[in-house]
Design a protein that fits this description.
194 residues; alpha/beta; 7 strands; binds guanosine-5'-diphosphate; cell division; GTP-bd
């Protein structure tokens, strides 16, 4: 999709604030620092629109980005957040779970993992949870520019094996070189029109 117009419609802290439109929504999940803002910026052709997270997890909101009045990217805050109380975390976790399992507009989820390392226990837990609820899923291995070309096959098998992927698509990605951008968009567009 050629993107010219994007705005942050709402940083929601409660369900009543979610957009009332029926545009398809694509959620992005992954732990803090995995490259979620960077991926979003590449997809929408902006340098610094979605803010790269200097204070991971401080603001716990679901951020709805309106793209061309055609879809929303929904930024789901990184898991493994440290700076909030257990109670806050539980409350917010519940909101995310409800969003991911019951929102009719949600057409797919992109789970980001760092392609330089094996997925973390949190990554595995998130993956299995999404599979359990049969959410259409794309796994994106980020920061692939930091992985030598000769090590990429190993990176793919490490992600595939650690997550226990069988039929889920995996796309390597770099916000630096934009490697994988077109493929991620193709997956999103297929989900939008499904
Ligand atoms: P978020 O917390 O998931 O939103 O992560 P950010 O997008 O803020 O990225 C965290 C850090 O990783 C920043 O310093 C980014 O510049 C860096 N980063 C993100 N994506 C890439 C990538 O594809 N390649 C490289 N080399 N660095 C990246």
């Amino acid at each position: 999709m050629e993107v010219h117009h994007v705005d942050l419609t709402i940083s929601a802290v409660a369900e009543e604030q979610y957009p009332k439109t029926d545009y398809p929504e694509i959620a992005l999940v992954g732990r803090s620092n995995v490259g979620k803002s960077s991926l979003t910026n590449v997809l929408i052709n902006r340098k610094n629109f979605a803010h790269t997270s200097s204070q991971p997890g401080k603001t716990q909101t679901l951020n709805f980005y309106n793209v061309e009045d055609q879809l929303f990217f929904v930024d789901v805050p990184g898991y493994g957040y440290a700076k909030v109380s257990k109670k806050q975390r539980e409350k917010f976790g519940k909101m995310i779970e409800t969003y991911l399992t019951t929102r009719p507009q949600l057409k797919g989820v992109i789970e980001l993992v760092d392609a330089r390392h094996a997925p973390s226990d949190d990554d595995v837990a998130m993956y299995q949870w999404l599979k359990y609820y049969q959410v259409p899923l794309l796994v994106v291995g980020t920061k692939i520019d930091k992985v030598k070309p000769s090590a990429r096959t190993k990176s793919i098998s490490q992600i595939t094996k650690t997550l226990g992927m069988t039929d889920t698509p995996l796309q390597l990605f770099s916000a630096e070189t934009k490697f994988g951008k077109d493929e991620v968009w193709q997956w999103i567009e297929a989900r939008m029109h499904d």
